[in-house]
Design the sequence.
């Protein structure tokens, strides 16, 4: 019953045109930033730790820009329930899809890496529409099973396969020597059972996933970063692909993990307002 209620509400609100949804987003900005102050202290603390060289006012302005963008993500996620393929193609431009296709031509799978940056959810749709080869989206299941099922059904609309993190190994083994793309959102917070590797990320000691590197070493497949940035026009994005690793065997242990996290760090530093600062990224500390 709960799943049906959530899906019905999503469907009804997704029928609203973009201009109405962005009007709601404008109101949500004032509500979240000035009234409810949704995780505002978390955001300000994260920015302070990530950018100690910036002034208080500079960090405050980044926070305001983030809260102005954050409601757009919410309403765009709602709109995804009924978005047509041509709308997706119009709203996310692939700048260089040939960077992925060249690996497919060599009969290789592609290990895609992205972050909670720009509109990564809409990026799943664009990824699904760029190829007929298998498209795996690696995700961390939500604690609420009803929400988990509703949103996974949403993400599968254009052919992506949702694969829980703990099941990725058997999927990539099955696809050995077959062109496919698997997409990791690599800036999530792992549990201590999932990783024991810390590195400096945005000036902080950070527990990071090493699964992307482990899968790359196992499959010998290249790692391609998917940078989903926002265009000037509201609701429009671009995706730029960068091959970070051609041959995983050429790298030392943890070097690949360092590489893609450094790439994410650089993107965030250039336009920090488009990263998910409400995320409690640094709640894990080293065990003594």
Sequence:
């Amino acid at each position: 019953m709960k799943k049906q209620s959530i899906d019905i509400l999503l469907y009804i609100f997704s029928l609203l045109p973009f201009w109405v949804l962005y009007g709601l987003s404008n109101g949500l900005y004032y509500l979240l930033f000035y009234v409810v102050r949704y995780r505002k202290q978390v955001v300000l603390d994260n920015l302070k730790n990530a950018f100690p060289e910036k002034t208080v006012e500079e960090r405050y302005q980044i926070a305001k820009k983030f809260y102005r963008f954050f409601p757009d993500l919410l309403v765009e996620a709602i709109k995804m329930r009924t978005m047509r393929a041509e709308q997706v193609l119009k709203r996310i431009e692939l700048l260089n899809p040939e960077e992925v296709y060249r690996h497919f031509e060599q009969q290789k799978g592609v290990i895609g890496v992205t972050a909670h940056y720009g509109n990564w959810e809409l990026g799943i749709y664009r990824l699904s529409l760029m190829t007929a080869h298998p498209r795996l989206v690696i995700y961390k299941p939500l604690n609420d099973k009803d929400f988990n099922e509703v949103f996974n059904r949403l993400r599968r609309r254009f052919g992506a396969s949702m694969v829980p993190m703990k099941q990725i190994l058997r999927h990539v083994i099955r696809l050995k020597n077959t062109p496919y793309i698997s997409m990791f959102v690599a800036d999530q917070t792992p549990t201590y059972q999932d990783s024991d590797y810390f590195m400096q990320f945005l000036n902080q000691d950070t527990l990071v996933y090493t699964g992307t590197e482990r899968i790359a070493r196992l499959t010998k497949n290249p790692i391609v970063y998917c940078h989903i940035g926002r265009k000037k026009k509201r609701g429009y994005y671009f995706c730029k692909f960068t091959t970070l690793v051609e041959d995983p065997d050429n790298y030392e242990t943890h070097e690949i993990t360092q590489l893609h996290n450094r790439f994410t760090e650089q993107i965030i530093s250039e336009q920090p307002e488009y990263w998910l600062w409400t995320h409690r990224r640094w709640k894990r500390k080293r065990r003594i």
About this structure: The radius of gyration is 19 Å. The longest helix spans residues 56-79. The chain has a mean pLDDT of 94. The CA atoms of residues 9 and 78 lie 9 Å apart.
